[in-house]
Write a sequence for this structure.
């Protein structure tokens, strides 16, 4: 990252007093971890910080220090607004309603729209948490054990335990440095990536029983009724997409998750060479080349048909 941009950010953060930090809706480990890391680090040098996630902190991450301080709505005025791990402003949900454009955007999505006054975007970073691990010391901010735990959470969730195709030696070095603060990595790994509720596994069962395949594409659907049937409390896929993406001889896996009668969340995962972020972008979403998502208006049937058509056409183009 350009040193001048880092220096400018450092000066701005030093001058700021009331700081708002936000991240994206349906927060994942990188959203929560990056938000907490920046928020806690700024608090530790005496800043008045508010951390806001419009969907709140998911249960899986509530053990992280500071997560009980995260609000779903900002309160009061701020002289500095920072957004982390968020490729466009719409993804902040209602967190910035009524506020001016953010001062700072720290993110690693190649589809980032550079919406802030100052944009630190590194698309080769495996997680926003990796970027912050480098930036915090450059901003004169400490990385204590709770901050390292938040950052490691971002690193291991976005890389699904250091195994996504964008993994780099740098990411492992950053993780090793964070571990030096005393974080119990195996315990964190178990808690955030391996352990899941019985309801979540039953929910997987429903999704897996409906799996379809066409050539090198596999997909399934999860409906409101499916969630009701098994008592799954979230409105996500309980990471079932990561199971679909392990199926051999497939290039793209996708999952359609009904949000309402008229809105569907879609997640794509692909092998290198199949850029699903472009399909997601076409539907108003975004993400990375091999992992992308979008929320699309329409019934499950309508959205499924459009999404499958467009994904099939990417597959045929790419394999020609
Ligand atoms: P998901 O499929 O939700 O696990 O997301 C995969 C990747 O796509 C992540 O990097 C997300 O941040 C990104 N992503 C998911 N949904 C959206 C969206 N609606 N807009 C922009 N990026 C998204
Ligand atoms: Mn994220
Ligand atoms: Mn991320």
């Amino acid at each position: 990252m350009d040193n001048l941009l880092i220096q400018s950010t450092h000066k701005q953060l030093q001058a700021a007093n009331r700081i708002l930090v936000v991240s994206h809706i349906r927060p994942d480990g990188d959203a929560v971890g990056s938000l907490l890391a920046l928020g806690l680090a700024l608090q530790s040098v005496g800043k008045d910080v508010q951390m806001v996630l419009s969907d709140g902190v998911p249960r899986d991450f509530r053990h992280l220090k500071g997560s009980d301080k995260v609000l779903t709505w900002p309160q009061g005025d701020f002289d500095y607004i920072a957004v982390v791990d968020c490729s466009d402003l719409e993804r902040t949900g209602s967190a910035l309603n009524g506020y001016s454009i953010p001062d700072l955007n720290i993110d690693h999505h190649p589809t980032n729209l550079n919406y802030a006054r100052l944009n630190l975007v590194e698309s080769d970073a495996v997680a926003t948490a990796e970027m912050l691990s480098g930036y915090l010391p450059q901003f004169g901010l400490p990385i204590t054990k709770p901050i390292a735990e938040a950052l490691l959470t971002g690193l291991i969730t976005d890389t699904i335990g250091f195994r996504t195709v964008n993994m780099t030696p740098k990411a492992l070095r950053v993780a090793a440095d964070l571990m030096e603060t005393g974080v119990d990595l195996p315990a964190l790994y178990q808690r955030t990536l391996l352990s899941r509720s019985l309801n979540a596994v039953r929910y997987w069962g429903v999704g897996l029983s409906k799996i379809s395949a066409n050539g090198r594409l596999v997909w399934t659907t999860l409906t409101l009724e499916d969630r009701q049937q098994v008592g799954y409390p979230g409105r996500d896929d309980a990471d079932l997409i990561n199971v679909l993406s392990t199926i051999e001889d497939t290039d793209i896996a996708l999952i359609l998750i009904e949000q309402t009668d008229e809105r569907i969340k879609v997640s794509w995962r692909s092998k290198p060479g199949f850029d699903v972020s472009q399909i997601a972008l076409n539907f108003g979403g975004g993400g990375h080349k091999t992992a992308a998502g979008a929320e699309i208006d329409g019934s499950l049937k309508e959205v499924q048909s459009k999404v499958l058509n467009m994904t099939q056409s990417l597959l045929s183009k790419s394999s020609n």
Q: What stands out?
A: The CA atoms of residues 12 and 80 lie 8 Å apart. The first helix runs from residue 3 to 15. The mean pLDDT is 96.
